[in-house]
Amino acid sequence: MPFLKRTSFRLKRTPFHTTLAALFACGFFAPAAFAADITVDGATCTLADAITAANTDAATGGCPAGDPGADTLILSADVSLDAPDPLSTEQRNLFAALPDITSDITIRGGAASVIRRNVAYTCTADTTDPIFRFFNLTAGSLVLEDLVFEGACLAGGALDGAVLASSPGTFLTVRRVTAEGTTIPLGDGLVQGGVIHSQSESLTVLDSAFRDTRVESTVSLIQGAVIYAFNPAGSMEISRTTFQGLTADAMVNLLQGGAVYAFVNAVDLEDVTAEDIEASGTMLQGGAIYAAFADSVSLRRGVATGIQATSTGSISGAYFYTAIVDSLWVDGVEASQIVSGGTTLADGAALSVSATFTDLHNLRISDVTTATSTGVCSGGAVRVGFSDFVSLSDAIIEHAECRGSTAFGGAVAFEGVDIAAVQDCVLRENRAIFGVEADAQNLGRGGGLYSVDPLFALERCSIVGNTVAPADPAGVGSAQGGGVWTGGVGRFANLTIADNVALAGDGGTLGVDGFDALGGGLASGGLEAPQGAGASDPLLASSTISGNRAIAGSGEPMGVDGSAMGGGLFVGTGQEVNLESSLMAGNAAAEPDGTETPEDCAVQGGTFSSYGFNLAQFPGNCNHNGAGDLTGVDPLLYPLADHGCAVPLPDGSCPPTLAIDQTSPGADAGHCGFSTLNTDGRSLLRPQDVAGVVNAAEGCDIGSYEAFDTDSDGVTDLPDLCPLDFDPGQEDSDADLAGDACDACPGFDDRLDSDSDGSPDGCNLCFGDDATGDPDADGFCADSDCLEGDPDAQVLDLCGVCGGDNSSCAIFIDGFESGDTSAWSALIG
User: How do residues 413-441 score in pLDDT, each as one tens digit?
Assistant: First the structure.
């Protein structure tokens, strides 16, 4: 036991009453602030009287007095509101139908839950029925929970806040509340929060739903048609909440936040759903959510679908928009069925964001369109601008479209970003469509990804099936980077860039020359001077670029045809690309008449260098003179497919890759050393040394796919018939492509499975019942075996006995059971 120093204490004797008084003064025995529950029955005690009783701690009407603490008002009868209350004060040009909240009050649904405007009243721009809000919170705190708000109506010059918290010193919480049918019809003033207007220290909205809200403003802007939060030092949290069936029309002015507007220090959005929203204005920022001027903004597990946002001017972020934010974190967003259209500028249908630090993680975005009729489109799905650092990872973006006279980034666009890193992504079948007007300066760049500045990193991504093309096949304009266009290559590694197309526009019918197509797969820069400083060591490593097309525009019959350069990779003026252990094959540059010239790589005004161990089937004018380089050979690629991965994407799939096997000249012919890569494009470990194949360096394969031989039988997993079982001979006696070493049903075709239960028909005892099968092997499926587990007890006998021999069966004659002698005797007696 450690030594304890003995210490003595002397207590100073003090008169008891003096000590007690001192303790009370210090708060040790301060009187408790009790709270009261007040039942609102609508007859003896109305909601208005209950609020007054809670505010004043005095009995009011038929309601008992509140207590000094936070009081709870519980509804036992629905509340119908008819006119402004004399105890409300005018806030933002409108009175409330209930007394101002000036203390700490909770209003909770009990036997009843509805608070509504009188259903007999109309809600039109010229209505003569009373207009009022429901609540004014001017001091203290207000908690609204387990309630339904119906039919709120705001009109004229007072257009916001069915629930208003007008003081920065207040606290507003909304929990398990449904607001339905809120209307602001053709008002002539500023709209800031049709349902909730909060200037509180904190606004918290949990487990709630806002449905069927319609907000229109004829002459002024709309900021948050449903929720408006303004407090530069405050916070806002919205969690597990739905915005559905919303119309917000700013008509001749600006709309910021079709559902939510936040100008607070910290914004936390989690499990927020935006569904079936129509938003419009002459300028639009955030068709659903707008957040700006914040230290931190987080959006987690957001869902957006069925959003239509239109503008007669510019439009940014039909779903989500941020600006002037220090730190932005977006994680787990799913967005689909979004249409965003502007006239002069359009960007980022799902996300249009800017922040000093931006982290976009775990995105699933599909079927979204961003379009402008006369101007520039940037980022069909995601646009990031004016950020110091951006990370985009674990993203699947497909079937997104960016459409404009100039179109940059069918899926993603980075503009004004100092450092951008993109990792673990799939950009599939997106389109940058340019030339929507007859303008010889039309331009399309980056069918999948566009970055005006050099990309710092692009790793473990599959960029496949994307397109840059004119809106009209006879339209005009240049197409650059069918898959990716970047102002400079940084560290690019483990990429699969396949089946992308850069299709230039024609010009002949307008009397101008045809236009150029640069880089069907990846274009670093263009023919003009570079827009940004390049990376210190631009490296494209361990990547596969295949099946891409650059197709020039026609000048016929009145102009000169354009040029197609770099079917796979194009290195433009002032750009530099250093290639290492990468594979290019099957790419082509095509003339306007469709004549193709196989060409994997082209340099025009830039610098291309080989760091060695590359494979180019058709190298073009890119000089492959490094150690271990292979040219003019077919890499024998398998078709693009999901070939497995170590870390699945957000939807559980793996990025599509172009696989090789041990027969490919790229097998064990690569080099991992320069780029220090220890994984492939599927995050599986490199190197995997294939037995019997001579290593060019340390056994890495060329390209983004590392071939595995899991069972070490000398046959890589593709095409090994039994990749987990040693079978060097690849015997397959029944020719069903399931090798004998792993055949589930020898002698039968394992591919035939009529009931889709995972058991081949040839060995399927229990059709439709293989979940239970026949564990006791008595020939009867478990769901019909009367005594599963006993192979001797298989079926019921005639008497219903499991495994019986019928000995217990009674015999019936003319309806009489054997053994019933008295009945029989009586019958025949």
Answer: 999 999 999 999 999 999 999 987 665 56
Q: Which of 331, 428, 481 is nearest to 641 (CA)?
A: 428
pLDDT tens profile 629-678: 999 999 999 999 999 999 999 999 999 999 999 999 999 999 987 666 79
Eight-state DSSP code of residue 794: -
Q: Is the separation of the CB atoms in 369 and 335 below 8 Å?
A: no
Separation between Cα atoms, residue 241 and residue 459, nearest integer Å:
35
DSSP letter (8 states) at residue 435: -
> Residue 332 and residue 287: Cα distance in Å, rounded?
19
* Pairwise CA distance, residues 284 & 291, whole Å: 13
> What's the pTM value of the predicted model, to 2 decimals?
0.87
**Number of CB atoms found within 10 A of residue 327's CB:** 15
Distance CA 826, CA 538 (A): 109
Residues 6+ apart with CB under 8 A from 316: 284, 285, 286, 345, 346, 347, 348, 352, 383
Task: Give the rounded distance of the alpha carbon of 514 from its chain centre.
Answer: 39
Helix (H) or strand (E) holding 48: helix 47-56
The answer for residues whose C-beta is within 8 angstroms of residue 459's C-beta and 6 or more apart is 421, 422, 423, 424, 491, 492, 493, 494, 495
DSSP-derived 3-state class of residue 763: helix
Of 500, 495, 507, 497, the C-alpha closest to 470 is: 507
Rg (CA), the chain: 36
Question: What is the DSSP pairing of strand 588-590 with strand 596-598?
Answer: antiparallel
Q: Which of 388, 434, 426 is nearest to 408 (CA)?
A: 434
Cross-strand partners of 520: none
Q: Is 769 exposed, middle or buried (0-12, 13-18, 19+ CB in 10 A)?
A: middle
Cα three-residue angle 600-601-607, rounded to 5 degrees: 165
Q: How many CB atoms lie within 10 A of CB 628?
A: 18
